[in-house]
Each structure stands twice: as C-alpha cells, then as structure tokens.
Amino acid sequence: MPKDEILQDGTERKHSPLRILVAEDNGINRFVIADFLERLGYRAEMAGNGREAVNACLKGDYDLIFMDCLMPEMDGYAATACIRLLEKKMDKRRVFISAMTADVMPGTREKCAVSGMDGCLSKPILLEPLKEMIETAISFAVGAPAPASAPDSGQQPPAQGVTGPTQTA
Question: Domains of the chain (ranges plus CATH)?
Fold first, then answer.
C-alpha cells in the first residue's frame, strides 16, 4: 500500500491503495500518465513493454492496467492475451485492462476487445478521460454490472476518447 506524503505546506497527500500498472514504451507518455495519476491520488508501477507487463503480473496482482498497444518486444495485444491466459491458468481474478492507443483506424477498438482489453483510451492521454476510465475500472472491480454501452467522451478520433468496458459480464 502506498505511503501518504507530507507536502511542503504541511498538508498530507493521500494515495489510493488501487494497484495500477502502466505498460508504455515511450518515456514522455510514461511521465505524463504518472503525473496525471499522481494528481488524481494514485501511484503506478511502470513497464517498458508488453513482456515486462506480463512479468509484473506474474509477480503481483493489479486492479488496473493501462496498456499501450504498440510496444517493442511484445505489443499490448499479445501481452493482454498472455495476461488473460495466466489469469485462467493461475486462477487469478480478472484485472481491468485499458488500451492506450493513438491508432484511430477502423477496427482498432475491436482488436483491443478481441485481445481481452476492457476499455480504450485515445492518445494523447487527457486527465478527465483517464479519471473516467479509473472510475469504470473501480466499478468493474467491485462487481458492478457492465454498462450496455461504453462511456465515451463524445469526441471523434483523433481527439481523446474513452470507451470501456468492451467485455460484458
């Protein structure tokens, strides 16, 4: 569980116990999402590619994974499929996985769903859609029924959008 911090002004910053993994190969994107998560009161572990994300899931349990779709060594689609297989083989609970992608081509969101992802964030990542995806993941984790249609920011690609969950219970 993350420790709380005492800020310079003497106030205490609380951190959520939500266990988050971010799988992203781009350093700038990792910095941005870590900063946004910190602003929202969360901390995340980082993986630089899909293989590192799968290894992290072997070593620990997460409540939420933000998965870049295109990474070296193992892309997010393959990593998600591996994580889903590990969950079944190891009898682990299903973690909420949200894609992060700049790909706005038709079929991308469907490809995310087929690989086992539960939601999708468009890049560049923006604070409000990130917050909405976390709220969706928390609802998923506590067993709330999946909405009939995924939340959407209402913006059209290539603007930021949120969808999730892509799977139904």
Answer: 15-163 (3.40.50.2300)
> Which distant-in-sequence residues (6+ apart) come within 8 Å of 158 by Cβ?
102, 104, 122
Exposed/middle/buried for residue 128 (C-beta within 10 Å: 0-12, 13-18, 19+): exposed
Helices (H), the chain: 27-39, 50-59, 76-89, 108-115, 127-141
Paired tokens of 151: 């939340």
The two tokens of residue 12 are: 């205490």
From CA 18, how far away is CA 138, in angstroms rounded?
9
Tokens (6 digits) for 154? 């209402």
The tens digit of pLDDT for each residue in 51-70 reads 999 999 999 999 999 999 99
pTM > 0.90: yes or no = no
